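Raw record, unedited: Rod shape-determining protein MreD
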Amino acid sequence: MVRSALTPNKRIGEGPVPAAHLVPAASVVVAILLTALPIVVQSGWFPNFGFMVLIAWRLRRPDVWPAWWAAPLGLLNDFLTGAPIGLSVTVWTVAMLAADFADRRIMWRDYWIEWTLGALLIVMDQLAQWQVAAWMGARLPFASVIPPMLISIAAFPLFAWAVASIDRWRLRRK
């Protein structure tokens, strides 16, 4: 039997896992739930896990979900993290729209461009959180935002790798 060059090399029984289209959103929800872990610190040095997974999925697979999915996921993040309601909704939606804009402007992307896009979106998220905290009366010096920003930027490739692994599992690619 001759195989066409257009048909993928699949074995019988291989293919996407059941409900594969829900895995990206579920992974973002699990990342948001990581904030419920009992970690006690004096300053927030850890990254915004849900946002990192969201932008890793968006940069990995732009077609996984439309931009409006950022609003309900951001609302869930606001509820679970104690952020002002609407902060993550706004920031996450703007990040998805900015990624859509970048997709239309950039013809090709490699590792460094994706890391730069991720870093810019992380900086935008951290600055928005800092500004909203200042508007609400928190006396938070800007220097306290720099460590979590740098840790998040440095950890972004790890989140991108985790999302790529989940995506391979989701689509049963080896």
